[in-house]
Every structure is written in structure tokens, then in C-alpha cells.
């Protein structure tokens, strides 16, 4: 429970994003920093790690029946992002603390699934891939940034088109997926009570769509991680894992618009890496798109964390830097290992405050937002280091630790003090707090 006192925020009457004007309202929470990110389109740059990874995957699936969409702009309707996919009205992802709203009915997509309807309707091939920038209000640290990239795939089969040959068509399409030597741990049945098949599909349809989906994703991750192994070997590494087949495991997952649903994890340098969510598309998503008597699958993979591994990039914010020392290291179609340039020292400052009651606690994402606005990419991390409620007065105290660190220069103490002062001023102006 947090309360933003919106009268104290200066929100323009009109927001311009990607050349379009939008009327703002009490839901608007897009800041100039975030607005700036919507113009970058890193996934379209052929010599940026995100763009290189995107092309690598697209090349693997070229000729296998997919259309590639890369130009969808980040502003979508609340309906497309949530309602069309069956998100319940009280889903936490809809909160203003989690999502960037342009206004009540318009927002910055939080995932590429916002385009499932559009892609399924407009694509003339059996399947599609879409890559795009997505936005979530989130913490800031080495692996979290309020903007990141997803690639989503979808594929459908029309019962009207294949009639009683649908099963053999599915088997034929499964056989067409190139084989890999990947080791797959998959101990779950095609569906179970906790991860059910849909009533409109037969057991056999569910099983075969699931197999096609899993084999497709296995091909994708095998391609990407084998490419990473090749480049590590070229760079002279002789670690044993480089000569072993890739190992993955499947487990059940949940998404409002797929059932059954799964997640794939990849065993990489001694750890299971969460890579991608997926499932058999719910009938309602297809019928909402005007597509009847059709079955299919969808998956969504985060590109940034995978690119960090492939290119040896230690901090997700480096993707957004304008520093030439970063960009000159990467080239079209090539996975290379990032060579860190000098790091500049960080400066720690704490901000601590009282609120009258637990109900008026400042939401961590709102604090992050203020910090990000005042200091942008000069923030290495923000952490809640202490919180307690006074047993007698009920007052609540929070202490946040901010690490100021630039990726391209030394920060002076005076500069950090100014930033810290403006953050304190903004927190004081926007929340019912007593700074300590
Ligand atoms: C989704 O976003 C679903 N749309 C995926 C999907 C598509 C499921 C189609 C079913 C069918 P999720 O929130 O788990 O799911 O995010 C997918 C991936 O995005 C994660 O596995 C992770 O790799 C990446 N990701 C999520 N949050 C962040 C973040 N803050 N920074 C970087 N990557 C992130
Ligand atoms: Mg997840």
C-alpha cells in the first residue's frame, strides 16, 4: 500500500512516444528516462549484442515456416497486454507499481505476448517470431533494468485445413524439426491435473503440439548455446563443458493464456538457467483473434540475460550505454567476448525515513523510479537494507542504500551530494515521510 501524491508530480497533458501523441491521466507514470528508452530499438541494431542474438536465432528458423516481426512499437492497449490474454482484473502485473502506463487504457507492453492476437491474425505463414523491447517497473541491479528484450514465437494448425489428417500433419511437422544432440530431462506427462489440457483439444493433439513446441525451443537454445561454446573455444578456453552436449530440463509452469504450460532451464557453467516460458495457446486467445477451430503453441524468451552470458557482459545496463568502448567491440553475426574497460569507483549513500503507518509504506518500485529519474544510469544499485515498525507508535522506518557509480567516468563527491539531495527533496515532496 503506497500513496503517490500525484498533484505534486508534474505530468504533461500530452506525452509523445514514437512520434504519436497520447493524452495523460491519473494513470500516467512514464518518466522522461523511460520515454527516452522507447526510441533506442537495440534489437534492430545488427552490431549490438541484442541484435546479433536476434539475427542468430532468426537465421536458424529461416525457411521453417515463420514470419519475423521486429517493428512493433512499445505502446499497446491495456486490452492487448492483459485482457486479451485472460489476465485476471486483480493480477499484480497490472498495478501502477509494476507497469508503465501512458494512460488508463494504454501502456508500454510488459511482454511480447501483447502482440499474439495481432501476429496470429496477420501472419500468412504457419508461425511467427517477434522481437521487441519490453518494459517493467523493477529493481535496478546488474541483471535488472526497467527495459529489456523478448523474443516470442507462435505456431498454429487449423483443423478445418487438415481435417482427419491433422495428426499426421503434426507428426510430419515434428519430423521436419532439425535434430540436435541435446540431453533433455523431461519427467512430466504431456499434461496433468495441475497443468491441464484444454477441453477443446484431444489428448493426442495436446501431446503432439507440446512435442512440436518443446523440440522447437530445444533447437533454439541448442543453437544459441552451441554458438556460445564455439566462441569460447575460439577465444582459447579449454573447459570440459565446451565439449559436452547441452543439457536442459522441462518443468510445468503457469500463464493465463496457455495450458498446459512449461518452462525450460538450461544447464550452463554449473547452474540451471531459467530461459523461457511457453505453452499450448488457450482457445480464447485464438477466438479473440477471429481464428476458429485451430490449435497451437507460443513461447517467450528473454534476450538480455542470454546475451549477457554469450557475450560475457557483466552488467545489463551496458547494453544501453552510448560509450564507444562498448559498441566498437561487437560486429554483425559474431559472438565475441566483452573486454571490460576500466571501472570507476562507487559511492554509497543511505536514505532513511519514517512513515506514519505500515499502510503508507513507500513501494520499493516507486523509490527506484525517483532514484532513476534523478540520477539515471549513475545508479549501480538500490537496496532496502533496513525496515522496522515501532511497536508502540506503529510508525514504519525504511532505509535504502544507493550505490552511485558511472560506467564511463569518476563521480565527484559534490555531484553525488547534489543527486542525493534532489532524491531526498523528491521523496519528501511525493510521500508522507519524515526523512531521518
Ligand atoms: C513472459 O513474459 C511471458 N510472456 C512468456 C510466455 C510467452 C509464456 C508465450 C507463454 C507463452 P516471464 O515474465 O517469465 O514470461 O518472462 C520471460 C523471460 O523474460 C524470463 O524467462 C526472463 O528471461 C526474461 N525477464 C523477465 N524479467 C526480466 C527483467 N527484469 N530483466 C531481464 N529479463 C527479464
Ligand atoms: Mg518466469
TrEMBL record:
Residues 53-340 form the Aminoacyl-transfer RNA synthetases class-II family profile domain. PROSITE patterns: AA_TRNA_LIGASE_II, FDX_ACB. It is found in: Mitochondrion matrix. Its EC number is 6.1.1.20. Residues 342-436 form the FDX-ACB domain. The keyword Repeat does not apply. Keywords: Aminoacyl-tRNA synthetase, ATP-binding, Ligase, Mitochondrion, Nucleotide-binding, Protein biosynthesis, Transit peptide. It catalyses: tRNA(Phe) + L-phenylalanine + ATP = L-phenylalanyl-tRNA(Phe) + AMP + diphosphate + H(+). One of its GO terms (cellular component) is mitochondrial matrix. GO terms for biological process: phenylalanyl-tRNA aminoacylation. It comes from the Eukaryota. GO terms for molecular function: ATP binding; phenylalanine-tRNA ligase activity; tRNA binding. Is responsible for the charging of tRNA(Phe) with phenylalanine in mitochondrial translation. Belongs to the class-II aminoacyl-tRNA synthetase family. This is Phenylalanine--tRNA ligase, mitochondrial. It comes from Wickerhamomyces mucosus.
